[in-house]
Amino acid sequence: MKITVYGAGYVGLVAAACFAEAGHEVLTVDPNPERLQALQQGRVPFVEAGLDALVAKGVASGKLTFSGDPEVAASHGTMHVLAVGTPSSADGSTDESQLISVAHAIGRGAANNVIVVVKSTAPVGAAERVLDEVRHEFSLRAVPYAAQVVVNPEFLRAGSSVKDFLEPDRVVVGGDDADSVATVASLYASFVPPEKILRMDAASAALVKYAANAMLATRISFMNELANLAEAVGADVAEVQRGIGADPRIGKEYLQPGMGYGGSCLPKDVASLISVGEVAGVTMGVARAVAEVNSVQAHRITEKLERHLGDLAGRTVAVWGIAFKAGTDDMRDAPSHILIQDLVDAGAKVQAFDPAAGEAARRHYAAEKDVTVVGTAAEATQGADALVIAADWPEFRSASPSELAGTLSERVVVDGRNLFDPAAMAAAGITYSGIGRGES
Prior knowledge:
Layout: E1 2-6, H1 10-21, E2 25-29, H2 33-40, H3 51-61, E3 64-67, H4 70-74, E4 79-82, H5 97-109, E5 114-118, H6 126-141, E6 147-151, H7 161-166, E7 171-174, H8 178-186, E8 197-200, H9 202-233, H10 237-245, H11 266-280, H12 285-297, H13 299-309, E9 316-320, H14 335-345, E10 349-353, H15 358-364, E11 371-373, H16 377-381, E12 386-389, H17 394-397, H18 401-407, E13 412-415, H19 422-427, E14 431-433
């Protein structure tokens, strides 16, 4: 099948490369010329495990090609997959302008009947608005082409997106035209068993994505609240986590407390769900509480530092981890940004390190004289008073407590990811503070 994918970011490029791997002819369109140049050479301009090899293979086989012209791309396929950005507006609602822009391009450039697949996360009704724009452009051209829309949300985790796409726990395909739904479902037939392909109406498919991310965000925020309570009453949240995770009704996933959720999905999807509820006249009280808890969690790290160091003015704080999680260089809505801004506002200097996001972080903080992004974890702690662990990279776990004690002038470690054993830290003479585990 000939497929056009709009957007060569984390979602679009993974989908394009995986569809090419399945044997389809995929043309990916993106407005960023630097990104296109890299991709045409088989290079992925961001970190995502296994994606570089898959893209290089697709380019070499000719199954995966790229273009910067959306109207040219519109004439390529009968299947048009929309994976463009849907950022939050100032009021929390979803900005659908990129979806509508692509819809116009498809309507102006398509050379046959089309199925438009909305893979971007967008509210209920957005798919129908996209379809209306495509059909309107067809009518202006007076062409006899038919257009249908299908909602096919992604459930990809940064750092394991390729595996998640090729080995999903479910594929959701929603639409009102049964033939179009069946056609989209067939894209996955070579690597997904039929029982994992869930067919439904478009509105339900759109809401599934928001419901899934809001549920995950709720677990994270609830665990962070429990961690705060554990600290206050002298409990160990790691033991609480172990106890409730053993309940099969709850399970072990997404029970890790920390600095709060970040990334490109959870923050904006929770905000959008709240906005959708407002439009529908439904108060999303739980979602509001989830967002509120998350908005203050990263600030608690600064409070912990102040408790141990006092006034932070003139202090130097090492930060390990800048991306929102390990396994990616994605810094969008990363809790580390809140922490770093807190430290700068308090008059501290920051020496930050991230195994993947270093270059992007240097550009991000280029104008901030009190933030230095360094090349190694050891360089970040050199001359620092304290260390904050802000991401759960495996290499951070192997750090020696005794070496940290010899490097940090105040021997203070605030572990925002609970990577270390408090007893081992205390034995090394380190003042250690985790999340919900008390302090040593």
